[in-house]
């Protein structure tokens, strides 16, 4: 580059101008002031001269004097400042040739930059204008490029760069920075070789931790790099390569090993590349290929850092250009998704959130990357992919992420690894929370892409305890968070928007399926009976007092221990949960106890709940032991955080806004926001009224007001479900009735007017209103009078009219249960009418084409007669339950205990001679089965029902799916609080062959939960000892047969039981029970005894195979077990016992069938078998056969040993039987047994056809297959 004047390119004047200054600058006796005056005059004249018009000969004297050491080394700063300015002007005027030798030039330029370094400090400093002139001159004239031609150019360049980057930090004007940048750019472009030290100075400005745009040194370096990018590219590339080479060390002792760069240096170098790319990407033209090479390196650290570095560079503003300029680098980078190293794949995934927004052309490739890595074998990668979506903003997710991608992330909520599950639910939860305002505003795009998220996640809550905990957290954090407090500017008080909080719940429910709504209600705690285990735990903690107990220490300690055990069993890590709960009890923080009690109180309003929960969470986090996660889960499960008493006014208001009948298939909910809100409010209010009526306690007056509303010209008795407000009145009656039932003292707050109106509703034309109104009257003040009036009125109706309205029967269900004395006044009349005029009236099918249908999918379509029959059964059942503790209980219940099993026996027909409508029969047998379950909660009734237990149990295999599902739900609801005898726990195991997955999944979930929650002793009684009852039940099963299909089905029941119950600890007990089964006989018949022995042998085979597969030892059970005497009897003598033990009842082919179906055999045996199969056939040894068939011995050696040992122990029958009253002989022989059905009159056994042996379960399977084939034929 050639030095120029500031005015190059202008027209020169016709005459040359000479310098007018002729004074001597150096000489003795010249004072500093005089010298300054001379230099100032000279500077002014030189500055006024133009290069094209100056007579350079006139400058000869001053140019020589200006480089005298007396001036260059003068002690006065002003002298040196003006001297530098004059020299700069001389160089400008002589350009492009310098009038000095190289040695003189070196001294001049050193003089320039030393003066700048020493004196150029700020605008208020002396001689600032002269220094500014010097910098401006060097920048515009470019005379500084002469430095590059000097012998010591490298040293001088280094000094210039050092001085400039030191000067620039002095907070000078931005124009000075620009001049400096021009000077440095000119030097870089002119020099033949840039010294490495100079480049280090430049790069140091980027590696400084304070390198930001507001830093002048950083700005100067950026300007220089951008100005001289072409020249710097090669040097920067070499600089980066040198860092990787010079700082590397061998990975091992072998000299041939590939060098492994030092990690810290690698980190710094890649950080430098990122900063350069951010501010001056042009200098990296040759560095990008190096990064691409690193991506392919065999060394791990370079691959990881290169992947991370390029990921951040692609995310920067220049990322699009980078992809376009270096397509091969982009391809190599995105292919790191399949790198063998987890760390590399992880960095690739972590870079994607910003790339989705920044690289529109690459979104398809990025989506494919995330889709593939969502199924990566490593959990860290899957978790990172899920986390990517939590880092997106709403607009990115809405416009650049497909619904398919979000659904795939939601599906990872069921991942096997906890970290992946958490990130998946957290991500979709955040997306839903961001989208909620738009969903609330009915934005179609937001609804389509995000509204389904809560439904998808809530449905997984029952999968396991771990997932349930995550779903609870997902709801609490993102879907249904507690409201934030806002400060009222007028009152300065913090307020809670209860309406918005409740409306959000209704909005979420709008897009939930019926199943999800029920799960949400379960998670809300509405169905939990109070006081529950959480209340007991808190009470025990308070009484425990940190271990200092005032009295009854044993009882307090026991209750605390049991409550902790029960609570811990609901956590994914019971041991850790128990430790944390114990820690909380030992902490004995009274403030925490008070806060928790406030949170758990059903009457706590939303504002107090939010405040208490926030303070509780904060205080728990400050405890020395980290127990916050456990206590947070406890807090959610013990409080009404989804719906509370504060929600009721809003729910009632939403319900009252819409009139009409209860939504059904015949009357679907209109697709409007208000109608959906009303329907969801109805669902919630119904749940509250049914399970949590205590929430209505503070709203009794509001319920009374609703009940008293209605048309003034129409009496309540004439109300119909379609009248405005009918549903609100029904809900008010339900809430009031159940609230008064839980706390009868509330009835004193109800005025006489309301009571009189409720009495009219009890005899009204709406059966649900009549039901709840009568229930209220049964607990209200003066209940005896009210209930007697209701019964008297209904009895008069029976006498005056031939038909009893269904609504009156609905009222009788409540009177019979809660006011038995009033009911008994007219019981003869009522019961006779219900049996003869209601139950005995058949319901014939109206349309023969619909006979295949077995269920009214829409409850509103149930005929009044059928509903009346169902209600009549409830009246009879409730009457029995009301008298359960009286001496006449069995006498009153006898006809009912005969009627209900008969209904089940005849498939729902009250009279076996009349074939009724299948839809009516399914409802009738379901109600009969459920009624028997309720009656079985009473010990005396349970014993009376025991002979019909097998038939009752087989309802779980009914041909109608809805019957099976409802029956299972009811039996689980009664088994969980252990209201039913333990033997009923065998029924859920009969669901394994159900054609629908829902039934067996629900059964398996119940068994798994109860197994985890029950203490050891109760687990043995309720789940393990019942194994003998399961064998007995299967022996009496209608499908029992020894053919391959039936026997394998029976084995499936046992295998299902073993899958859920068998462990290494109880396997010996189960084997002992199956052995003991062959030392007793069936209580009914010899034929059933043989069936029972077959089941015992089948169980032994499966148990031994399971022990082998899991490498469990199978020792002899050390204890004694009492076998149930109600179903089993001791054998007459030891000889009979030994004979049975030595006899093999299982068919010869059974072992082969079991091996084929269940893949029995230990892993060792399987390997040996596979090894044999790999051997060529010609090398097989011939098998020995007798007459072409292998002979199966009648005795098995392993069983003979056990049998002989047991036979030696039994001199007499040592089977200990439970102390259960034996059923009378007449009861056991009443009706035809299976055995008698199989014998003809002449005593010759007849062959029973398969059709005769088919149970409803098999019929259901065949029917399902038939329907499927019919549909295929139609297609």
Describe this structure in words.
With 1275 residues, the protein is mainly alpha-helical. It has 64 helices and 8 strands. α23 packs antiparallel against α24 (444-450). The radius of gyration is 46 Å and the shape is elongated. Mean pLDDT is 84; it is low at 5-14, 247-256, 711-722, 1162-1167, 1169-1215, 1219-1257 and 1266-1275.
Q: Summed up, what is this model?
A:
With 1275 residues, this protein is mainly alpha-helical.
Main β-sheet: number of strands, strand sense, barrel status?
A: 2 strands, antiparallel
**Order of strands across the main sheet:** 1-2
- Portion in beta strands: under 5%
* Alpha-carbon Rg, integer: 46 Å
Total beta-strand segments: 8
Uncertain ranges: 5-14, 247-256, 711-722, 1162-1167, 1169-1215, 1219-1257, 1266-1275
Helix content: 55-70%
Choose one word for the global shape.
elongated
* Class from helix and strand fractions: mainly alpha
Helix count equals: 64
Q: What is the overall pLDDT average?
A: 84
The end-to-end distance, rounded to whole angstroms, is: 86 Å
Main location: nucleus
Region (Disordered): 657-677, 1163-1275
Organism: Crepidotus variabilis
Keywords: Cell cycle, Cell division, Mitosis, Nucleus
């Amino acid at each position: 580059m050639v030095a120029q004047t500031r005015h190059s390119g202008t027209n020169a004047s016709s005459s040359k101008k000479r310098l007018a200054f002729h004074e001597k600058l150096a000489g003795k006796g010249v004072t500093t002031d005089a010298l300054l005056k001379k230099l100032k005059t000279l500077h002014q004249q030189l500055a006024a001269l133009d290069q094209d018009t100056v007579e350079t000969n006139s400058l000869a004297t001053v140019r020589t004097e200006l480089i005298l050491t007396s001036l260059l080394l003068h002690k006065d700063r002003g002298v040196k400042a003006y001297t530098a300015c004059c020299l700069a002007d001389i160089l400008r005027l002589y350009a492009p040739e310098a009038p000095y030798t190289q040695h003189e030039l070196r001294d001049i330029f050193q003089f320039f930059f030393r003066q700048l370094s020493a004196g150029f400090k700020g605008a208020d400093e002396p001689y600032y204008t002269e220094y500014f002139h010097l910098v401006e001159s060097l920048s515009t004239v470019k005379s500084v490029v002469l430095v590059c031609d000097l012998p010591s150019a490298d040293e001088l360049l280094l000094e210039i760069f050092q001085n400039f980057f030191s000067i620039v930090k002095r907070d000078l004007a931005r124009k000075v920075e620009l001049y400096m940048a021009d000077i440095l750019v000119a030097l870089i472009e002119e020099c033949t070789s840039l010294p490495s030290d100079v480049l280090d100075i430049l790069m140091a400005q980027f590696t400084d931790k304070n390198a930001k745009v507001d830093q002048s040194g950083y700005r100067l370096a950026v300007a220089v790099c951008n100005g001289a990018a072409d020249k710097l590219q090669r040097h920067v590339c070499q600089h980066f390569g040198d860092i990787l080479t010079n700082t590397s060390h061998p990975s091992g002792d072998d000299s041939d090993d590939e060098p492994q760069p030092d990690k810290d240096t690698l980190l710094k170098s890649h950080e430098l590349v990122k900063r350069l790319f951010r501010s001056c990407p042009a200098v990296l033209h040759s560095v990008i290929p190096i990064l691409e090479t690193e991506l392919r390196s065999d060394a791990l650290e370079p691959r990881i850092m290169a992947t991370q570095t390029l990921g951040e560079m692609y995310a920067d503003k220049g990322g699009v250009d980078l992809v376009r300029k270096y397509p091969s680098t982009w391809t190599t980078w995105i292919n790191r998704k399949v790198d063998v190293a987890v760390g590399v794949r992880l960095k690739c995934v972590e870079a994607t959130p910003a790339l989705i927004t920044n690289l529109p052309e690459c979104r398809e490739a990025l989506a494919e990357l995330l889709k593939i890595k969502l199924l990566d074998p490593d959990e860290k990668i899957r978790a990172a992919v899920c986390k990517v979506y939590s880092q997106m903003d709403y607009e990115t997710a809405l416009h650049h992420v497909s619904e398919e991608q979000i659904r795939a992330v939601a599906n990872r909520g069921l991942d096997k690894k906890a970290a992946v599950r958490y990130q998946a639910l957290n991500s979709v939860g955040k997306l839903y929370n961001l989208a909620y305002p738009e969903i609330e505003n009915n934005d179609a795009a937001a609804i389509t892409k995000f509204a389904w998220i809560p439904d998808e996640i809530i449905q997984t809550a029952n999968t396991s305890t771990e997932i349930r905990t995550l779903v609870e957290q997902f709801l609490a954090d993102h879907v249904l968070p507690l409201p934030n407090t806002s400060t009222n500017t007028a009152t300065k008080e913090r307020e809670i928007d209860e309406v918005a909080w409740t409306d959000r719940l209704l909005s979420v429910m709008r897009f939930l399926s019926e199943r999800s709504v029920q799960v949400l209600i379960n998670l809300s705690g509405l169905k939990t009976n109070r006081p529950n285990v959480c209340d007991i735990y808190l009470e025990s903690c308070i009484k425990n007092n940190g271990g200092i107990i005032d009295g009854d220490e044993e009882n307090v300690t026991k209750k605390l221990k049991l409550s902790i055990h029960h609570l811990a069993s609901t956590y994914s890590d019971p041991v850790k949960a128990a430790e944390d709960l114990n820690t909380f009890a030992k902490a004995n923080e009274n403030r925490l106890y008070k806060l928790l009690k406030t949170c758990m109180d059903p009457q706590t309003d939303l504002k107090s709940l939010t405040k208490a929960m926030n303070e509780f969470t904060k205080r728990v986090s400050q405890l020395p032991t980290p127990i916050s996660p456990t206590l947070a889960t406890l807090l959610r499960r013990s409080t009404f955080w989804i719906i509370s008493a504060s929600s009721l006014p809003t729910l009632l208001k939403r319900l009252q806004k819409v009139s009409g009948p209860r939504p059904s298939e015949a009357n679907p909910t209109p697709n409007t926001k208000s109608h959906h809100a009303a329907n969801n409010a109805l669902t919630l209010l119904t749940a509250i009224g049914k399970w949590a009526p205590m929430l209505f306690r503070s709203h009794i007056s509001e319920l009374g007001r609703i009940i008293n509303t209605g048309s003034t010209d129409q009496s309540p008795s004439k109300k119909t479900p379609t009248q405005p407000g009918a549903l609100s009145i029904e809900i008010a009656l339900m809430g009031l009735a159940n609230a008064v039932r839980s706390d009868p003292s509330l009835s004193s707050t109800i005025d006489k007017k309301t009571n009189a109106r409720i009495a009219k509703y009890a005899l009204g034309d709406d059966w649900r209103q009549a039901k709840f109104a009568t229930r209220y009257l049964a607990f209200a003040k003066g209940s005896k009078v009210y209930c007697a009036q209701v019964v008297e009125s209904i009895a008069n109706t029976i006498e005056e009219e031939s038909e009893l309205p269904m609504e009156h029967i609905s009222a009788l269900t409540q009177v019979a249960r809660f006011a038995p004395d009033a009911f008994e006044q007219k019981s003869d009349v009522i019961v006779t009418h219900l049996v003869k005029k209601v139950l005995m009236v058949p319901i014939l099918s109206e349309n023969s084409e619909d006979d295949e249908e077995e269920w009214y999918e829409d409850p509103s379509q149930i005929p009044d007669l059928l509903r009346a029959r169902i209600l009549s059964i409830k009246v009879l059942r409730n009457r029995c339950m009301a008298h359960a503790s009286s001496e006449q209980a069995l006498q009153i219940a006898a006809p009912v205990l005969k009627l209900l099993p008969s209904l089940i026996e005849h498939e729902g027909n009250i009279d076996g001679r009349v074939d009724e409508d299948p839809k009516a029969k399914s409802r009738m047998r379901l109600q009969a089965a459920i009624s028997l379950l309720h009656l079985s909660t009473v010990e005396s009734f349970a014993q009376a029902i025991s002979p019909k237990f097998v038939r009752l149990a087989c309802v779980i295999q009914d041909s109608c799916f809805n019957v099976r599902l409802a029956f299972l739900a009811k039996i689980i609801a009664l088994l969980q609080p252990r209201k039913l005898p333990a033997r009923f726990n065998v029924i859920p195991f009969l669901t394994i062959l159900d054609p629908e997955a829902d039934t067996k999944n629900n059964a398996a979930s119940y068994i798994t939960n109860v197994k985890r929650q029950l203490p050891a002793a109760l687990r043995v009684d309720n789940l393990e000892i019942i194994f003998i009852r399961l064998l007995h039940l299967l022996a009496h099963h209608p499908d029992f047969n020894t053919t391959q299909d039936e026997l394998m089905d029976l084995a499936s029941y046992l295998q299902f039981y073993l899958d859920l119950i068998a462990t290494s600890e109880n396997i010996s007990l189960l084997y002992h029970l199956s052995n003991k089964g062959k030392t007793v006989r069936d209580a009914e018949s010899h034929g059933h005894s043989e069936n029972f022995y077959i089941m015992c042998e089948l169980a032994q085979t499966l148990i031994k195979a399971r022990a082998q597969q899991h490498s469990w030892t199978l020792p002899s059970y050390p204890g004694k077990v009492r076998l149930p005497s109600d179903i089993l009897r001791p054998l007459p003598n030891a000889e009979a016992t030994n004979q049975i033990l030595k006899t093999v009842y299982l068919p010869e082919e059974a072992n082969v069938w079991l091996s084929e179906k269940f893949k029995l055999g230990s892993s060792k045996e399987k390997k040996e078998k596979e090894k044999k199969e790999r051997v060529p056939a010609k090398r097989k040894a011939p098998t020995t056969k007798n007459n072409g068939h292998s002979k199966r011995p009648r005795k098995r050696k392993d069983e003979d040993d056990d049998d002989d040992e047991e036979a030696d122990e039994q001199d007499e029958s040592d089977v200990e039987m439970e102390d259960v009253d034996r059923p009378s002989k007449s009861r056991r022989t009443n009706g035809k047994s299976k055995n008698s059905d199989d014998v003809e009159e002449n005593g010759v056994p007849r062959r029973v056809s398969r059709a005769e042996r088919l149970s409803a379960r098999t019929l259901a399977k065949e029917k399902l297959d038939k329907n499927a084939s019919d549909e295929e034929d139609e297609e």
